[in-house]
Structure to design on (409 residues):
DNA sequence: CTTCCACAGGAACCAGCGGACC
DNA sequence: GGTCCGCTGGTTCCTGTGGAAG
């Protein structure tokens, strides 16, 4: 009985809540237009780059071998969007004219290893390859003999290739860049995208010369350019008069100061929209934008800390304890603290060497910050501290049953 | 000027897993 | 069923180093 009336009440509550949401006119027309994987048909301020790219790869549709290309630029400068747009249009053209054409997009950071990149490539060619068990060279061999057999034109896009090169070297790039020599019936053009120009230093000169037959540089957007991009996207994403000029300027200015990253600007706008929507407001205010900016950072920190592996979380907890007492520990002191937490929980602690690597990873994630300090006779050490707001970290760690006991309010 | 600390971080190696292939 | 493979997540061993103390 009791449970029943409870159910009744809460279902009424939910209904009321849903009604109130549905009755409100959403400020969004198409929320997805602000998502990072959305590829618009119009990319402002990338006209030159788009033209270059289509010139470079047009020969593929005439079944002749085009140059390989190297695309550079910081994150959020439109590299991925541009090449995806070009390949999308090439695909349409190829279909119209009945030409064999495959565009294969692979993100090297997400795939992670040489083997997975090649097997993902194979799968995109409709060539089934087991996800483990084969030698990497075997996968490559299967790909080449398949391409020899089917006779097609392939645009292979390797995004964020710097992460691959830094941990595995350029072997795969070398093989792929000369893959055309091994078959005569197909053509393959390689597009390599990197956030980091210095990655060229890691390449063998032969690989470099083959990859950089064409180079396209993507400059960061200025605040003015960001405004145009936002404007174009606001029309797709929001209903009329939701985003004022002032708000748009603010978003553009905030993002331009963060290296002209369009992806982040769009994300900021989306989150600000969601905040306004939840508030029941018909328009986005500057306050919403500021709140959104804070929320984005805090959510990121929370999510990263929550999903860290056990020993990294232990390290973070140890550092949090120091920071809460306004202490900035050395790496050695932090290690000692970490060991005591671990033994407290009956967990086998890792070696100092490994811990040192985990700390580096935490620093790469932007969670912690270290400063080398020389103490002469007393050696050299890194002073460690948390580099983000403490609250989301505290929240993430105390939601962990095991760690909660160490985290004080 | 030399010494020497408290680490940083590279290199090589290992165990265990899931899986392919013959 | 034995041998090979890639990959993760470690360990062991080692060399390198800035600058205050001596």
């Amino acid at each position: 009985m009791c449970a029943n009336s409870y159910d009744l009440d809460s279902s009424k509550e939910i209904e009321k809540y849903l009604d109130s949401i549905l009755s409100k006119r959403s400020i969004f027309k198409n929320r997805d237009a602000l998502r990072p994987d959305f590829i618009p048909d119009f990319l402002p301020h990338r006209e030159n780059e788009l033209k270059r790219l289509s010139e470079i790869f047009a020969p593929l549709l005439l079944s002749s071998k085009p140059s390989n290309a190297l695309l550079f630029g910081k994150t959020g400068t439109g590299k991925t969007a541009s090449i995806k747009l070009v390949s999308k249009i090439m695909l349409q053209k190829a279909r119209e004219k009945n030409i064999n054409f495959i565009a294969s997009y692979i993100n090297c950071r997400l795939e992670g290893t040489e083997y997975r990149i090649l097997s993902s490539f194979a799968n995109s060619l409709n060539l089934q390859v087991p996800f483990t068990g084969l030698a990497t060279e075997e996968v490559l061999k299967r790909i080449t003999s398949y391409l020899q057999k089917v006779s097609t034109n392939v645009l292979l896009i390797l995004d964020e290739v710097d992460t691959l090169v830094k941990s595995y070297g350029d072997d795969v790039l070398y093989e792929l860049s000369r893959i055309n020599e091994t078959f005569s019936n197909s053509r393959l053009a390689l597009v390599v995208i990197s956030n980091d120009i210095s990655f060229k230093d890691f390449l063998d000169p032969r690989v470099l010369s083959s990859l950089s037959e064409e180079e396209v540089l993507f400059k960061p957007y200025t605040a003015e350019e960001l405004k145009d991009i936002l404007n174009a996207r606001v029309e797709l994403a929001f209903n009329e008069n939701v985003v004022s000029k002032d708000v748009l300027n603010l978003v553009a200015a905030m993002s331009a100061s963060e290296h002209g990253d369009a992806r982040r600007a769009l994300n900021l706008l989306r989150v600000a929209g969601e905040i306004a929507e939840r508030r029941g407001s018909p328009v986005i205010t500057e306050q919403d934008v500021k709140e959104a900016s804070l929320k984005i950072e805090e959510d990121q920190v929370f999510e990263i800390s929550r999903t860290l592996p056990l020993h990294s979380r232990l390290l973070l907890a140890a550092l949090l304890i120091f920071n809460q007492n306004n202490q900035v520990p050395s790496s050695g002191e932090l290690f000692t603290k970490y060991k005591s937490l671990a033994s407290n929980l009956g967990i086998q602690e890792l070696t100092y060497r490994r811990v040192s690597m985990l700390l580096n990873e935490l620093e790469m994630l932007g969670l912690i910050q270290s400063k080398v300090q020389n103490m002469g006779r007393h050696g050299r050490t890194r002073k460690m501290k948390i580099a983000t707001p403490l609250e989301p970290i505290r929240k993430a760690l105390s939601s962990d049953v095991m760690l909660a006991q160490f985290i004080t309010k």
About this structure: Confidence is low (pLDDT under 50) at residues 1-5 of chain A. Residues 130-135, 138, 330-332, 352-353, 356-357, 360, 372, 375-382 of chain A lie near DNA strand B (CB under 10 Å from a C1').
